[in-house]
Design a protein that fits this description.
Blueprint lengths: L2 E4 L15 E2 L4 E7 L2 E6 L4 E6 L6 E2 L6 E4 L1
Antiparallel strand pairs: 1-3, 1-6, 2-5, 3-4, 5-7
InterPro entries: AcCoA_biotinCC, Biotin_BS, Biotin_Carboxyl_Carrier/Decarb, Biotin_lipoyl, Single_hybrid_motif
GO biological process, one term: fatty acid biosynthetic process
GO molecular function: acetyl-CoA carboxylase activity
Length: 71
């Protein structure tokens, strides 16, 4: 999905996830704002968050990687 990438639910709020966090399949990782609609992006696997590829507040394209999760 193309839009703006946000790590937290709102300005001044903590991010959904941080590097090193253990994540579960279905856990919300970030929000993509597309045409004024906020879309929650969920993890597709269990694992540990080892890299945050996208930059907070910046546009992302539909095929851009957002995170790297090590199973």
């Amino acid at each position: 999905m193309a839009g703006n990438f946000y790590r937290s639910p709102g300005p001044g709020e903590p991010p959904f996830v941080k590097l090193g966090d253990k994540v579960r399949k279905g856990q919300v990782l970030c929000i993509i704002e597309a045409m004024k609609l906020m879309n929650s992006i969920e993890s597709d696997q269990d694992g540990t968050l080892v890299e945050i590829v996208a930059e907070d507040g910046k546009p992302v394209a539909a095929d851009d990687p957002l995170f790297v999760i090590k199973p």
